[in-house]
Design a protein that fits this description.
Oligomer: single chain
Strand content: 5-15%
Order of helices and strands: EEEHHHHEHEHEHEHEEH
Largest sheet: 7 strands, parallel
Number of helices: 9
CATH topology of the largest domain: Rossmann fold
CATH class of the largest domain: Alpha Beta
Number of strands: 9
């Protein structure tokens, strides 16, 4: 385990040709949006506010799994009906791009790295990328509705590896949850944890400014990385 800073050994960062990003908690800060969204559903169902464990769960799982978790059993269909009438524009005020991530992505792209996304989000991903001014950086963008088995199953990761013809050791996955940790382990790619020192990761990232500077030092003078 190493912390991404000025003193990190280059071996922790070398050999990477592609970086895959999770969305929520990594590319964007959406915690308050999730609290508002799922809390609103529970309120309309006459249920108590979200618990801390529910907040953690909905932040890292697919939309359907999250709904089933906070509104189980016979409440599920009622909850899904509420979601169909929900005004998604009300969430915009609660969403923000992670500080420094666009600058990091711009440098990675200029240096020749492949960039992709593997997220538990579904059809909302295109909207998020446009809203956060992150369109055009990633290929492919794997969402839960594009795979048979979403994270932590490795299907999405293997799709990205196959698309770019890469080996797992040539890929780093930046995530912020146990689901992301398990996804990386299942696929064999290198796991870099964002803002959670409790996760089992090869590299821990406290800010995108830090990892950008560390990567620039590691790959200095290399031009295109491949």
């Amino acid at each position: 385990m190493a912390l991404a800073n000025a003193h990190i050994h280059p071996d922790f960062l070398s050999g990477v040709k592609c970086i895959i990003f999770d969305c929520d908690g990594v590319l964007i800060d959406s915690l308050q949006a999730n609290i508002y969204y799922y809390g609103n559903i529970k309120e309309q169902l006459g249920l108590p506010p979200l618990t801390e464990s529910e907040i953690e769960y909905v932040h890292m799982h697919t939309h359907r799994d999250a709904i089933m978790h906070v509104a189980p059993g016979e409440l599920f269909e009622k909850a899904m009906e509420i979601t169909r009438g929900f005004d998604s524009s009300s969430l915009v005020q609660y969403l923000k791009r992670s500080e420094g991530v666009r600058e990091f992505l711009s440098w990675l792209r200029s240096a020749g790295f492949k960039l992709a996304v593997n997220t538990s989000r579904a059809e909302s991903m295109d909207f998020i990328l446009k809203l956060m001014d992150l369109e055009g950086f990633f290929f492919p963008v794997i969402t839960s509705d594009k795979v048979v088995a979403p994270k932590p199953h490795p299907e999405g990761m293997f799709t990205i590896l196959n698309e770019h013809g890469l080996r797992p050791e040539e890929v780093a996955y930046i995530g912020d949850s146990k689901v992301d940790e398990r996804t990386a382990q299942a696929s064999g790619v290198r796991f870099w944890a964002y803002k959670d020192m409790k996760l089992d990761a090869e590299v821990h990232i406290e800010s995108f400014w830090d990892i950008k500077a560390a990567m620039q030092r590691c790959y200095k003078g290399c031009g295109q990385v491949f």
